[in-house]
Amino acid sequence: MTSDQSLLGGLKVVELSHIMAAPTCGQLLADMGADVIKVERLPAGDDTRRFGTSVSGDSAAFTMMNRNKRGLAIDLKTDSGRAALRRVIKQADVFIENYRMGAMEHYGIGWTEMHKANPRLIYCSISGFGRTGPYAERGGFDLITQAMSGIMSITGEGPGRPPVKVGAPITDITAGMLAALGICGAVVQRERTGEGQYVDTSLYEAGIIHTFWQTAIYQATGEVPQAMGSAHPLSAPYQAFKTSDTWVVVGAANQNTWLKLVEAIEAPELADDPRFSQPIDRVDNLDALVATLNAIFLQRTTAEWLDVLESAGVPAGPVNDVAEMAADPHTKARGTIAQVPAATGGEFAVIGHPVKYSAASTEIIRGAPLIGQHSREVLAEFGFTKDEIESLIGEGAVGETKAVAEAAD
Question: Which of 31, 46, 142, 172 is catalytic?
Answer without folding.
Answer: 172
